[in-house]
Design a protein that fits this description.
- Part of the ABC transporter FtsEX involved in cellular division.
- The protein is built from ten helices and four strands; from the N terminus they run ααβαβααβαβαααα.
- By secondary structure, the protein is of the alpha+beta class.
- About 20% of the residues are buried.
- It has a four-stranded antiparallel β-sheet with strand order 2-3-1-4.
- About 75% of the residues lie in helices and about 5% in strands.
Length: about 325
């Protein structure tokens, strides 16, 4: 009975010892795989550069899409509805209309332009100031500029708001240019689809590149792998350093892609600033935030592991020690 108890204690101690040494063994193999990359600098650097550049392209496209969406949101919130009032509308009736419109939950701001103010601005802008002096009466109606809220600035919601405003008795005609908003949204969706398609193709290329690099490393160590199998090493033990190599490729490639995107964004900031200055506007290009950087690096590690896993599962099993 005591022998069974002592054997059980020995088994438990052995299990806990193996459990404690497992992370140490993994750390040793991870550091060893990093050393393997260091011993083949040309191949490692070329693979990392190809991986980093391949991931930098979809990341840059994502950056452009994000900034385009930010700009479109600003434009959407600034879109206006122009209401032309009836010529018979008095100044008091126009002000009453403005007060009623300010109570609309879909409207952010209301700006009233009287008929006299509209005529004065038209004289200045048109260049026909002296000719307009011969008119018997003002042909221009009073105008109300309505800016919808952020929620009501989308194309469909803005059309619904316009239909609601046209029911006001003082309003003769309303104008809302939503075609450019619809086209902008369609272009944004097209660019997003292009980004997804390019990203999938480049991710496939990354998997193939890492897999081919790991395959060459396996073939270079074919004799050593055969000897390890001869002394009883399992496939999982042999393939583990190659999996860590794929992870290292992903880490360094992901970091390189983040640096490339940051450099490109900084380079384009100056050109964008010059362009916006011509339109008396200001726009600051938004780079990758911390969560996006972590996502990019994590995705690169996942691709590196996937490429290395496919390669080791196919080639390490095919290596068997000779009977001689």
């Amino acid at each position: 009975m005591s022998e069974l108890h002592s054997s059980g204690l020995v088994e438990r101690e052995g299990f806990f010892r193996r459990l404690l040494t497992l992370p140490i063994r993994h750390l040793q193999q991870a550091i060893g795989s990093l050393g393997d990359l260091w011993r083949t600098p040309f191949t490692s650097v070329m693979t990392i550069f190809v991986l980093g550049i391949s991931l930098a392209l979809p990341a840059t496209l994502h950056l452009f899409v994000k900034n385009a969406q930010h700009v479109s949101e600003q434009w959407d919130s600034a879109s206006q509805i122009t209401l032309f009032l009836k010529l018979s509308t008095s100044e008091k009736s126009g002000q009453n209309l403005v007060n009623r419109l300010k109570l609309y939950p879909e409207i952010a701001t209301v700006h009233y332009i009287s008929a006299e103010q509209a005529l004065k601005e038209f004289k200045i802008l048109s260049g026909f100031g002296q000719s307009l002096e011969y008119l018997d009466k003002n042909p221009l109606p009073a105008t109300v500029l309505v800016t919808p809220t952020q929620r009501s600035s989308q194309a469909q919601a803005a059309n619904e708001l316009l239909a609601k405003l046209l029911k006001e008795r003082e309003v003769e005609q309303g104008k809302l240019d939503v075609e450019w908003l619809t086209r902008l949204e369609a272009m944004a969706r097209l660019i997003e689809d292009i980004v997804v398609g390019v990203a999938l193709l480049l991710c496939l290329s990354v998997v193939l590149i890492v897999g081919n690099t790991i395959r060459l490393a396996i073939l270079n160590q074919k004799d050593a792998i055969a000897i390890m199998k001869l002394v009883g090493a399992t496939d999982s033990f042999i393939q583990r350093p190659f999996l860590y190599s794929g992870a290292w490729y992903g880490i360094f490639g992901g970091l390189l892609s983040c640096v490339a995107v940051a450099v490109l964004a900084e380079y384009l900031t100056g050109a964008i600033a010059e362009l916006t200055d011509l339109y008396n506007s200001s726009f600051e290009l938004q780079g990758l935030v911390f969560n996006e950087i972590l996502t990019l690096i994590g995705f690169a590690i996942l691709l590196g592991l996937l490429g290395s896993y496919i390669s080791v599962r196919q080639h390490i099993r095919a290596i068997e020690p000779n009977a001689d």
